[in-house]
Amino acid sequence: MGQFIHLTAADGFTLPAYVAKPTGKPKGAIVVVQEIFGVNSHIQVVADGYAAAGYVAVAPATFHRVQADVDLGYSDADMGAGFGFKTAVDALPEPGVMHDIQAAIDYARTGAAAGNVGIVGYCWGGLLTWRSACALSGLSAAVCYYGGGMTTAGESARQPSCPVLAHFGNKDHWIALDTVEAFKLAHPDVQVHIYEADHGFNCDQRGSYNEAAAKLALERTHAFFAKYLG
After folding, report:
1. Distance of alpha carbon 164 from its chain centroid, rounded?
2. CB atoms near residue 7 (< 10 Å)
3. Contact, 125 vs 139, CB < 8 A?
4. Is the pTM of the predicted complex or chain greater than 0.90?
5. Number of domains in the chain
6. How many CB atoms lie within 10 A of CB 94?
7. Which structural domain, as residue segments, surrounds residue 38?
């Protein structure tokens, strides 16, 4: 359904992004922020799903500043490689990859002629989505799926400038449940849902996939975007 285009960030850096468009007039646009595995087949399917629901979906390659053409699976070796790329991105001078996400938002809002823009991210992308909701411009809504690190004290101290929905699993060994509860207390305006599920429960290519949790989270996500992007 989609194809890769190139975006240009404010500092002149050029990066690829997977773009999927709906048939007919878009309801709006959604930036899809990858996990640590690149804009792989799963993220492309996620973007295609939002396009099928009526949105222009834009998935920027957020590893491109440190490694081009990252397309990983979910083996232990892939996990190790992905963490390595994430670490390299985290070491970039500020604002680093946030320039690239802003470029995706700007394209979604103007280049795609799609109206209001939302953002959704998974795992590392969930953390970047939280940061985007707090620091970037042009967003009307943000949805974070099990954002690794976003419930730490430092990240929780940020304040979002658009409505935020967050999904977590109570069996997630990467995100302690007590930190999720503390995040909820710190951000009563953020809609937080906790599922009987593990980290990565939305991805049907991972052993932690939980069909029931994924379905319910997606229903809530679609309702959230319909409310704020419509």
Report:
1. 12
2. 25
3. no
4. yes
5. 1
6. 6
7. 3-229
85 touches 151 (CB < 8 A): no
What residue spans of 11-52 are helical by DSSP H?
Answer: 41-52
Whole-angstrom Cα distance, residue 201 to residue 175?
A: 13
Largest CA distance in the chain: 44
DSSP structure class, residue 107: I
Contacts of 61 (CB under 8 A, 6+ apart): 15, 16, 17, 18, 34, 38, 39, 68, 70, 100
**CA distances for 6 relative to 15, 59, 223, angstroms:** 5, 11, 30
**pLDDT of 173-203, one tens digit each?**
999 999 999 999 999 999 999 999 999 999 9
Q: What CATH number is given to the structural domain containing 182?
A: 3.40.50.1820
The mean pLDDT of 139-160, rounded to a whole number, is: 97
Burial of 40 (C-beta count, 10 Å sphere; 0-12/13-18/19+)? buried
Portion of the chain with pLDDT greater than 70, in percent = 100
